[in-house]
Design goal:
With 178 residues, the protein is α+β, with helices and mostly antiparallel strands. It is built from six helices and eight strands, in the order E-E-E-E-H-E-E-E-H-H-H-H-E-H. A hairpin with a 4-residue loop joins strand 2 and strand 3.
Length: 178
């Protein structure tokens, strides 16, 4: 039995899970799938619970392939960025995940960029990037205007990786993207 590392990549349409040896050799690969939802033109959502099930499918595929997951010493997560949802204190989703591909917050992004210079955005967020509808703050502004009840009841506005880690551990761990 060789100590190993489990890597989980929560992509836009599927989850890939891989087990690597400590020296980086790929030992096993598994995949789980989930769907994209298009509630209205320009809107792209996903069900966070379905994504969590896709993560489980990917891990189960490793088990079926004969991987000895009892030897896993560390777990690494990567995920689609700017895919967020609101959750309550129990970690239950109050909204679907709003995808990075979603364009519903175009007006909010325009207002934000009119109010704040690129330099100010970087000072406030630590991120040197153009504010777009994919940006979390623009989605949150859109939700406040169009779906105020879930915003009022929300405990956190999280990315999918945060949701999956919470579901796996029962704890909130927030590691900002690099």
């Amino acid at each position: 039995m060789v100590p190993s590392i489990l890597a989980i990549d929560i992509g836009t349409s599927s989850c890939k899970a891989a087990v690597f040896s400590e020296d980086g050799q790929l030992l096993a690969l598994g995949k789980g799938r989930y769907s994209l939802l298009f509630p209205e033109k320009g809107q792209v959502e996903q069900n966070p619970k379905e994504i969590f099930e896709g993560v489980g499918q990917a891990i189960q595929a490793l088990n079926k392939g004969g991987s000895d997951l009892s030897q896993v010493q560390a777990i690494s997560f990567s995920a689609q960025i700017f895919a967020q949802c609101l959750v309550d204190k129990a970690g239950e989703p109050l909204t679907n995940l709003i995808s990075w591909m979603d364009g519903r917050a175009r007006k909010e992004a325009q207002v934000f960029t009119q109010k704040f210079s690129a330099t100010r955005v970087e000072e406030l967020t630590g991120m040197d990037m153009v504010v777009t509808p994919a940006y979390g703050v623009t989605k949150l502004c859109w939700l406040q205007k169009h779906q105020p009840e879930p915003v009022r009841c929300a405990y956190r506005f999280i990315q999918i990786k945060d949701y999956v880690i919470y579901r796996l551990t029962g704890n909130w761990y927030r590691i900002p993207p690099v």
